[in-house]
Amino acid sequence: MLSKIPVKLERVGKKHIDREILRLAIIAELDAISLYEQLAGATDNENIKKVLLDVAKEEKTHVGEFQTLLLKEDVEQVEELEKGKEEVEEILE
User: Could you report how far apart the first and last alpha carbons of the chain are, in Å?
Assistant: First the structure.
């Protein structure tokens, strides 16, 4: 679990700091999704399971919010995501 920032932000140049902050936020949200879904899978209590899965779903929305911001900040990321999508489509054809 991400309980502390794995990157020394003071070492990141000003030009890239916002990108790193957004990537760290995405990592934290993905970590939370994984945790909540694992906990939901571990309980037999339907009320707890329902709330955990609902919270996990909200975290997925947060990933989308942070990713949207990241894609506005990092044009190269947009290009590489498109390349990745194309590669997967070629493999699956």
Answer: 36
The DSSP code for 47 is: H
Q: Residue 25, Cβ neighbours under 10 Å: how many?
A: 17
Q: What is the pLDDT of residues 41-55, one digit of tens each?
A: 999 999 999 999 999
| Domain segments of the chain as ranges | 16-92
Q: What is the pTM of this model?
A: 0.84
How far apart (Å, rounded) are the C-alpha atoms in residues 51 and 56?
9
Sign of the torsion formed by the C-alpha atoms of 47, 48, 49 and 53:
positive
Structure token pair of residue 22: 């957004």
| Contact yes or no for 82/89 (Cβ under 8 A) | no
